[in-house]
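Collaborator request, handled under Task 6.
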Amino acid sequence: MRNLSAALLLAVLAAACALQPPTLPPVTQTGVQAGAGHPIRPPGERPDGAAPPGVVVEDGVTEDEAVASALWNNAQLAADLAGLGIARASLIEAGQFRNPTLQMLFPIGPKPFELTLAFPIEQFWQRPKRVKAAQAQWDQVAAGLVQNGLDTARAVRRAHVALLQAQDRLSAAREASGLRTQIAAMAEARFHAGDISQLESRAAAIDSESAADLTRRAEHDLSIARDRLRVTMGVPPGVALAASGSAVDRSAPAPVDLLREQAWGARSDLRAAELAVAAAGARAGWERSRLFTLGLLLSSKEVGTSGVRTGPGLSADIPIFQSNQGAVSRADAEVEQAALQYLALRQQIDLEVSESREALVQALDSLAAWHDRIVPAARDLAGRAKRSYEAGDVSYLTVLEQARQAVDAVLRDIDLQAAARTAAADLDRSVGARAARGQ
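Structure tokens returned to the collaborator:
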């Protein structure tokens, strides 16, 4: 019996040592890079504000450079990605065995020596289910964090659009201010020459001061937009950023049905919701495996003059009052909840794709009218009015009205370009990748 007990103990310990911890899945960058087009900083490296390879921010920041820098240096994204460490710790913990328990009673007085070694052997069939549940949780967290990267990409694209818009509005405001300063100077000269009244001259001066105030406000807006882009990109203070943009992509987005199909295949948060269902199911299986607990005992006891006797035994919970029904019921409810959340997210994605596509189509339609027809016509009329005023053919009020219409048209065109770029960023985010165009 003693030899049998020793052999059984050695077999248990050998089995425990032979089972390796679960293999940790690698943290890949493919999800974020596929959706945003740029990699994230390697895990374990903290953002330091340095530009990623191939990005130079001092010569003007393009949209792609802004996205690359944000994915590399954004502190909030780095904090979100650190959540993988928690899921990794849970996965490591799930693969570990519980330690055996040793109880020893010393031979004091009439009490004989007694030693009991208990090893919970139910973990041998519970461990695979526990590891499976932790693995599913890891996959869910990893897929969800891909969406965080895409959200960061959209945020920095919107910040880049805002800075580009602020730069263009400041340029237009300065142009308008210079034009109205010239008109005010001409009005003052004509007043001294007796061609116009003091009222008209004063109106021109007030309008020039108003244009100068508009320019100062545009300068403050530019400063705010520059700081917002800098922080979103993770660039340290002291770096003066300037947005560099190309012409707006005016190709129409693909039909909404095609974009929905693209989103359902590309959205990482939808994949995370799908994995949440699998993770809840794995947890339910693990909870069911915990209905019974069984322990292997090895007891040694001093028996009179016969010495120490050793023998094996078992310990088990007797499921009289409860058998883990609450945990099992909770796990089943979590499966049902995860399945319904998956369906709700599909509906939300459907709405996001439809709304963002419609916003982009609307912005492109308005941009085509203003950029191609209204702005050129307004500039032409303002130029004609100025020349007619110089020749004395029209009043100053006519010049002022045409100038205002031209400035308003230019500012509206700038805002519509920004709206089109923002809507494109929102559509890409709602799809989970670069949205298909022109199909």
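The cover message to the collaborator said: "The two ends are 80 Å apart (CA to CA). The CA atoms of residues 47 and 78 lie 7 Å apart. Please let us know whether this matches your experimental observations."
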